[in-house]
Specification:
Helices cover about 25% and strands about 30% of the residues. The chain has about 200 residues and is of the alpha+beta class.
């Protein structure tokens, strides 16, 4: 068990390093909360050594794959359909904290396209939302802006399908101007593929 514990610590450290904002992925907070939940609900629930060993082996395998892209030839279209939520802590200017939820809904629309709705809660409660079509190429969905008032111009938004996550990222001047003060798609968000939610994410 001590060897497995050391292996998991090493895998977690490596995954955190690769998921840090410096690498452009910024999924470290999601990994941290996922690890804490695993410790609480899986590891600590074990009553014998065999249960612990199985839990550690499965967790190490997940951590090793944490930042790996899903195979581009794995027929991704449709496999990620559903509603997702992720909770995170937000600090207001007055120093108070609250827990907020980012949400994302993705639904395949045929021809390697999908309808994506997402709402990201950011600094001081400001929201950044999107309701639009995305085209799938390999393991990446790319935003297809239309010409409506709610479509985001000059912002290249991508939803990367990884082994265990959906990672939202964006670049371009329009990413912040669309969302208003203190909110931007550029900071991104990530959602665990196992964390399906009942609530549909409805973005205006």
């Amino acid at each position: 068990m001590s060897i497995l514990d050391e292996q998991m610590a090493g895998a977690y450290k490596a995954a955190m390093k690769a998921a840090s904002p410096a690498t452009g992925t910024n999924t470290s907070e999601l990994l941290k909360s996922s690890q804490q939940r695993w410790l609480r609900t899986t590891r600590d629930a074990c009553k014998n050594v065999q249960c612990l060993a199985n839990a550690y082996v499965a967790r190490i395998a997940l951590l090793v794959q944490w930042n790996e892209d899903a195979p581009a030839n794995s027929k991704i279209d449709g496999k990620v359909d559903g509603n997702y939520e992720v909770s995170h802590d937000m600090e207001f200017a007055n120093g108070t904290h609250t827990i907020v939820q980012d949400c994302l809904t993705i639904k395949s629309a045929g021809n390697d396209q999908a309808q994506v709705n997402t709402i990201l809660v950011q600094s001081n409660g400001h929201n950044c939302s999107l309701n639009g079509k995305f085209a799938l190429a390999g393991n990446v969905y790319s935003y297809l802006p239309g010409k409506g008032d709610n479509d985001i111009q000059n912002c290249q938004i991508k939803l990367t399908v990884k082994q265990h996550q959906l990672v939202l990222s964006a670049t371009g001047d329009g990413c912040s101007s669309h969302c208003g003060a203190r909110a931007s798609f550029a900071s991104g968000a990530s959602f665990l593929r196992t964390d399906r939610a009942r609530r549909v994410c409805v973005a205006g």
